Structure formats: structure tokens, C-alpha cells
Amino acid sequence: MSEGLKLFLSYVVSGLVIGNVYGLMALGLTIILGVMKIVNFAHGEFYMLGGYAAYLFSIKLGVSPLLSIVAAMVIVFLIGAFVERALLTPFYGGKLDRPSDYALLMTFALSVFLMNVMIPIFGPYQKSAAPLAQGSVNLGVVQVGATRLLASLVAILLMALLVVVLKRTSLGVALRAIAQDRDAAAVCGIDVNRMNPVAFGIGTAMAAAAGALLAPTFLVYPACGTLAASKANAILVLGGMGSVKGAIIGALLLGVLEALGVLFLTPGYRDVYGFIVIVLVLLIKPTGLFGGQEI
Amino acid sequence: MRLTRSLSKLVTVVLVLALLASCKPASPTPSAGPAAPKGEPIKIGGIGPLSPPGTPALGEEIMRAFQLRIDEINAAGGLLGRPVELVFEDSGGAPEKGTAAMEKLVNKDKVVAVAGEGHSSALLAEMEVAKRNHIVLIDCEAWSDQIRLRGYQEVFAIPAGNTMFNKKIAEFVKGVGFQRPFVIGEDTDFGIESIGLLEKAFQEMGLTYKSLVVDRTTKDFVPFLLQAKEFKPDILVCNVTGVGSYLLIKQAKETGLAPTAECAFFSGVADMGYPELWDTAAASAQYVVWETAIHPKAEFTDLTKPFVDKFTKTYNRPPTYSGLQAYDCILVLEEAIKMAGSTDTDKLIAALEKMKIKGTRGEISFPTEKGVYYHQAYVPLLFLQYTAVGQTPDKCEIVFPPELKTAPLAKPK
Q1: pLDDT above 70 covers what percent of chain B?
Q2: Is B3 an interface residue toward A (CB < 8 Å)?
Q3: Is the domain of B169 the same as that of B152?
Q4: Which of A120, A142, A217 lies closest to B22 in CB terms?
């Protein structure tokens, strides 16, 4: 194998390994957007909460790393559901002139609040959760941290689980029905108001899972969710807002696009290449690659 | 349903109020001791990163060292018969936040002088406020040569400038016998300047080198490290501050690049001296080489140990060289006010330019010749190496300069 090809494959593998975890986060964003028609600007902060929860459980309480991730998801699910009930219900109340602006401002304010409230609670210093595994794994073309690789595999598993829930369970059917047509779902007997906190909770739990999985690799600190959220939003737009298939494929595409940019241009602007392609995709196909398809 | 929503909202409001009430104030509480002198306090402004994207550990250390010296001044009767009060503001290590913090210190709090900062980009913005308002600014830990080259009479530098610092790195690289350095620098005034200076030095030395600039907020350094690996370096030189400095170590180890028997790892940032290094980078940090101005085997003056001991006792963690520099900042301001007999800026500047005082790292004086050493105090620099996991800085071996070396550079098996 030529050195150039080996280097390209190493970038692709490296990009895909992390891309899967960001894809999980994007999936959460997709659920929220698809069901509730809200873009959650605090999604990165729920990622951050997941990281802190994983740190608390795995380091402070000595719980195993895998169980810590599950615990992080459960806790942030509950926080997400609470946030929806406390802050976002006016969006559906019918009393607001511009409910979208309300949701945007509220989630943005929540984002700023959560980021800053973590400083007095956990301090400004970065934390790390216990790693899922130690050492590195040689994949032939590239050596990858074992924790990072395992995080990627767990993310794939969680995404698969979520797809199964959406396709095969009554909860999933209800969420998909609401995503397609809220009023029609209500007429069919689905309690749409009860489903809102569930959808928001599932979405934030996905973000928390991503944060918990990446906590040992990228560390946890109050602003750690910002880049992750921008990647998740990029995937959301690339794949098509509200499309589960789009979120999964978008994540893989972003990883490959960034690898190509790094190889042929410079690694310095790695985080920009994906956005450039997104702009181009939106110019040609404004709904994203799989936009228009419901969850 | 209505009751559940109202209850949720009520709980939210109560939680928010409780969290706000628990927020700590920025400045540390002055320690209890003999009653401070009475009268209108002399307010000294402190500025530094207490939140990201800056390095909060650095900002907190600077603030604590400032308060320590100010407590000592007050315990000894104050300055000019008046108590001294520290007003510390968070710059976040960012230019826009630093500017706002400086404006507040100067125009609202009416401080007589300002000291601090650990990030060059922020200080370069803050010094414009200092110049515009004609107020003394003592740089505590920002290294950009531009800070000195601008030649502002109000600005004085305690830490090494990039020229001084990178000259030492180049001497270390050549002195230990490395031939293929790969430099990674952050996209700030400090990082970009460092790369330029090192490239020039390596070129003059005839070394084969390569360099990369990375976004300061990068978390995934693997693409950069893969590029470095392709170059097959024998030393990785990293000038990235904050969280990135720890992530680089972890990921360089994960990718099998450094530290290894074939490739050493050097980090030129203050973050290497903090215990958080072991919480985050863990075993990957073993064999990392880093620079500092303090080591028990290289004690500089009779002020060094008392300060180190007191800081360690008061705050339950030893200071890094940044703490010494911060303590020296207040020492020079204190001396300047005494020499001037006043807090007038022109008199303070004249006093600072004339002074030769003993600090914690050696004699402090500020040359007035314009250029890269303008108002720049001399700084001794040591290169240490962590040879065991969890090692504290005072147990590290000194690997450079040769006259102070305690052990040769260790390599992993």
C-alpha cells in the first residue's frame, strides 16, 4: 500500500471513529427537531452534563465506566424532561406570536446558564472520566486509542438501539407519528403533551451519552460542549433536518470530508471543511441530503 | 397538567436562585490576621483567566499569589500608611473579555495599577487600555514579544518573552542532540510567534524541522499527530496552552508518536506544572519534558522558599513558576509605590525603570532600551522531566541547562 493511501486511510479511520460519537449526538438533535420542531441550542451543554455525570460516577463513586455512561444517560434524560416541562411548554401553548423565536432564545439562554453554572459547582479545571479501556489498538493503517475505539462501537450500538426503538416499539411509533403530523397524532389518541418531555429527554440523553463516551478522550470542562454541538448541528444540516438516516450517514460523511480536507489541504482548518461542504450541499439541496424524510 | 408545569417552573426558579447564591466571588478572601491599617485603600487591579478558553488554574494561581503578598503588606502596616486591596477580574484569556475587565478595573474600580494575565492575546488587548488610560500594567505570564516590542512605557514584563524562551528551547534541542524537531503551536500570538522564532533558530542550527499551527480550542489532535508521525521527528515541541496541552500528550501517546524511545515530548507551557496533568493525561505524561523557573535544587533567593512554603500551606498545593512571577508582580508594584511615595502613574513608571530589587527568581530590573527586551525582567529557565507517573514537580530531574543538570534525558523502554 502506498504511503499516501495509508495516510489517507488513517485520516478516514480516525475521522470515522470520532464521527460515530458525534453522529449519536446529532441523532439526539434530530429526535428533538423532528418531534418538537425545536432546534436545541443547549445540546452541547447536555453533552457537557453527560461528561460531568460520567466523571462523578466513574471517578468519585467508583462505578464501572460502562455503567457510568448508562447512569449519565438516565440522569440527563430526567434533566431534559424537566427542562422541557419547565421552560419549553409555552412553545405549544398557542399564546406566543413567535414560538420559534421563544424556543431559540430559551435554549440559547439555557446554554449560557448551564455553561457558567458548572464553574462554581465543579470548578474551572478540566476533569476526565474513567476510560473504557487502556492503551492503543493497531488497526493496520493507524494506531487508535482503545477508549476512543470502544466509544465509537458503543455509539454505533446506541444508534442501532434507538433506530430499533423508533421502528419497532409503540413509543417509537408515537414519536414518529407526532413528527409527521402533531395534530393528526393527537386525533389518533396519542398524548402529544406527554411525548414532548420524552422526546426531549431522549434527545438530551443521546447528547449525554456522547459526552460520557468522549469524556476520557476529550476531557470535561464547562465549555467542552461547544465544538461537539457545532459538529452535531453540521451533521444535522448535512444529513437533513429531522432525518434519522441522514444523521447517521451525515456523521460518516463529515468524518470522511474532514479527512480529505486534512490530507489534501491542511489539518489546521479541519473543522471548517465540513461546513464548507454543508454550504455547498444546502445551495444545491436546501433540505440536506435526506431532508424531507421524517424520523 | 397545569399544576405540574407550574411546579416545574417554581422548582426551576428556586434552583437558579440557589445556584446563583452559591457562586463564589472572584477575589480570594484576605486571610485573618493582625488588623489591617485603616484609611482609603490603595486598590491594585488583578487580571487573569478564571474561565475558559483561558487556563483557569493559571488565573487562580496568579490571584492567590497576589493576595498572599497583599496580605503580607497589610500585616506589615500597608503601603504609604494605607491598606492595599486586590480587585481581581476574569479575562477568560480572551482579548474581548480582557479589554472589558481592564476597562472596569481602570474606570469603575479606579485601581492605581494592574498586574496579571497569562495569555498573550488577551494582554495585547489589555495593554491598549492601559496605554489609553495611562496606567501601569505588569505582565505576569504572557510571553509574546509584541508586548515588549510595542514599547509602551506603562507596560512591564515579569515573565520570559518568546525570544528569550524559544532561544532556550532551541538551545535545549541542540544541546541534547535532537536533529528532527516537529513543532505544534496554538493559533495565538504566543503560539504563532514561538513557531516563527523556533523555525528561525532551527534553520540557523541546520536542523531539519517542520511545524503546524492548531486551533487553540482543538480537542482532536490526531490528524496533526499523524502528520507529525509521517515526518518521523525525534522531538515533538508543543506550545499549546490549557486543555489542549493535556490532550496533546494523551493523543500523542495513543498514536504511538511520543514520548517514546524514538521521539521525546516537550511542552513549553505552565500547565505542565499543575497536578491536573496527572488527572487528565495520566501515564501518558511520564517522560514529558517541560520548562519552569523553580526547582528545589535551583533555589534562587531567600524569598523563594518562604513563598513556596507559605503558598503550599495556605492553598494546599505548591505554586508553579507562575505563582512566583505573580508574587514578584506585587513585589515590584509595592517597591515602586514606596520609591515614588505616591500612586501617580508617571512616578511609578520612573520608579519601576530605576529599581533593582530582589524577587523570588533573582534580581528584578527593567531595561529601558527599546526592542524585544524593553521593560523585560531577566528570567532563569530550567528544563525538567517527569520520570514517574504522578510525580510532583519538585521530584523531577533537571535535564537542561548543563550547569544545573541533575540527570540525563530519560527515554521509555
Answers
A1: 90
A2: no
A3: no
A4: A120
